[in-house]
Amino acid sequence: MELAAKDLRSSEHLLLAGNQRLTLQDLSAVAPIPRVVVFNACEAGPVRGQAKLPQYESYSLAEMVLRSSVEAFIGPFWEVGDDAAAAFAGEVYTGLTAGLTLRDSVTQARQQLALAKQNDWINYTLFGDGRFRLA
C-alpha cells in the first residue's frame, strides 16, 4: 500500500485525490493488513509526538500503521521535495520488481537520490522487516 500526500505535519488525516480524507479510523479498518506500507508525504516517518487519537494508543499515522502488524513501513522523516519523492518511489518499485529485497530497494533508491545530488537521500526511514520481496 502506498499513500502519497503533501504534508502530515499537523494533520490526523491524509488528503487524497478528490479531496477525500484517510483518517486513523480508516486505517484501523483496513483488512487484510498490507505487508508493506509507504507514506510518501512530508514528515510521515516520525512515530512519536502529541497523541492524535489516544484510544488507538498511537501518536502518528506512521505509528498507527506500525502497530497494525505490517511487516514494514517507509516514510520520510522531514519535508521532502516532489521530485525526490517521485524518484525515490520509482527506484524502490523498480528494485522490488527486479527481485531485490525491500531493504536493498530502499538502499538503491537512496543511492540514486544521492547521485542525483538530491538532499532527500537520507530522509526516508524503513521500519520493520526489510527482507520483504515480491514473489
UniProtKB/TrEMBL annotation:
<feature type="domain" description="CHAT">
    <location>
        <begin position="14"/>
        <end position="128"/>
    </location>
</feature>
<protein>
    <recommendedName>
        <fullName>CHAT domain-containing protein</fullName>
    </recommendedName>
</protein>
<dbReference type="Pfam" id="PF12770">
    <property type="entry name" value="CHAT"/>
</dbReference>
<dbReference type="InterPro" id="IPR024983">
    <property type="entry name" value="CHAT_dom"/>
</dbReference>
